[in-house]
Amino acid sequence: MLTAKLKDNIINCYDGAHSRETLKTWAGKGILLCPVCGKPYEYCHGRIVPPYFRHKDKEECLYEYYEPETEEHIKGKIALYKWAKKQEGVTDVVLEGWIPETKQRPDVMFKYNGKQYVLEYQCSPLSTHYLERHELYRAAGVKDIWILGSQKYNLEVSETGITHSKHYKTIEKYARFYWDTNKNEVYYDGQKLRNALNLQLYCPPEYTSYKLSDLVISDSGNTIIPRCAKVDDMMERDSRFIHEKEKKDEVVKHTKEMFNSLVARLNGLCEEQDWFALGRRDSNKYIASLYFQLPQFFTFFFHHNSCDCCTSREYPKVIGRGKRGGPRWGHGYKYTLVHQLEYEDGFDFNKVFSFIKNITIEAITDKTNELNNTRNLKRRIVTYYNKPIRLLFAKDKKVNYPFRFKFVRGVYVDSYEYISNNFIPCLNQLDKLGVDKYVLMIADSIYYDHAVVGQLRERGFDDVKIIDETWGGE
């Protein structure tokens, strides 16, 4: 320890107020006592190790969280004490003070804006030690700030940079920085620095080094932050990134509105269904994409100076690993350029609209005619939707059956066109005969009977059943 009790006063062994000989004499008389347990101290010093106090009987102090001193810890406490005394708004700075409510002896304690703070320089990665003390400080309403040492953590400092291994001690999840007392370098975690400085877009390096004199208490008082030219540069970059992002977002918003308007106008060419849709955006390759969703599938990619019309081809692609370590397959697309529109003076809405319209209008017209034909065909067959239709599947059409039926040539009921041109005429003939049930004989299709029934029902014929030669007319 660096402080001892002399009568009613607390003295220290580092500021030179008392000579080594004097401190050694007082310790020999047993009048230098531990401020916590009251047991006598002895004074230790050497040519290399800084002077310190320790219990004379070598027994552990009654202070629960006492731990042996190291040179790193001694030097760190002294430097932190001097640093705290220089901070604006800081008062009542005490080295190795005592908090009776929690029976703790922090390395440095002080008041900032009227609130109690402590600084703990933790050189040993004792996670349980940290968690217990942190909870006690919080229960007592004391704000604790922890600074880690640099020798016993997996931190690597080299000429190329500062890195950390993948293995972190529990305490490292809570502390923000490491301090090397020999180099007087503080290594601040990049992500935690970003949060402390409220940086929105700029990401600092994994670790950044600062001098202890660069650190100040944050305005909120929640932590210690660096304040120097490095930080000013980070803040300036962050402001510039925010400004650039706002401009970019405005351009993206305008671009999105423009392409939504283009899609709406193109879909105006389609009668019943929207066949144009915006695709995903890849800012590194193109500013927007548009899909034409018909069998003649086209993808339009918009660049700053051109519009590319491409056809696509699907191909198998490995997208990850399966549960057993093998490849997990998905699909990707390869695009082939078939048409291109270049615009030197920027995006021309009317030119682009005409370019896409000329490429797709034939497919749109064909699809529109197909839909109109399907609509007309449906009108022809809707009369028989609720009629009782019976299907007789037979291998031999020459067999005499005890009921009237109509032979149907070929059964391809998967299209409205076939049903209208071949199926409905047969039903019309049976209708003229005044039958109450429409029996159709289908030869050479015995293995597809249920498929035919299913296709007919999909196209609106509700009362369709399969019969055989024993059918009694029900």
Task: Provide tags for this entry.
474 residues; alpha+beta; 4 domains; 4-stranded mixed beta sheet
Q: What would you say this structure looks like, in words?
A:
- The structure is a single chain.
- The protein has 474 residues and is of the alpha+beta class.
- It has 4 domains: 62 residues, no CATH class; 158 residues, Trna Endonuclease, Chain: A, domain 1, CATH 3.40.1350; 96 residues, no CATH class; 83 residues.
- It contains 8 helices and 25 strands.
- Strand 1 and strand 2 form a beta hairpin.
- It is elongated and about 135 Å long.
- The helix-and-strand class reads alpha+beta
- Radius of gyration from the CA trace? 43 Å
* Fraction of residues in helix: 25-40%
Fill in the CATH topology of the largest domain: Trna Endonuclease, Chain: A, domain 1
- On the 0 to 100 scale, the average pLDDT is 82
Q: What is the chains' assembly state?
A: single chain
Q: Compute the number of helices.
A: 8
Can you tell me the CATH architecture of the largest domain?
3-Layer(aba) Sandwich
The end-to-end span amounts to 106 Å
Largest β-sheet summary? 5 strands, antiparallel
Inertia-based shape: elongated
Strand order of the largest sheet: 17-18-19-20-21
The first-level CATH class name of the largest domain: Alpha Beta
Counting DSSP E segments of at least 2 residues, the number of strands comes to 25
Q: How many separate domains make up the residues?
A: 4
**Fraction in beta strands:** 25-35%
Q: Low-confidence parts, pLDDT < 50 over ≥5 residues?
A: none
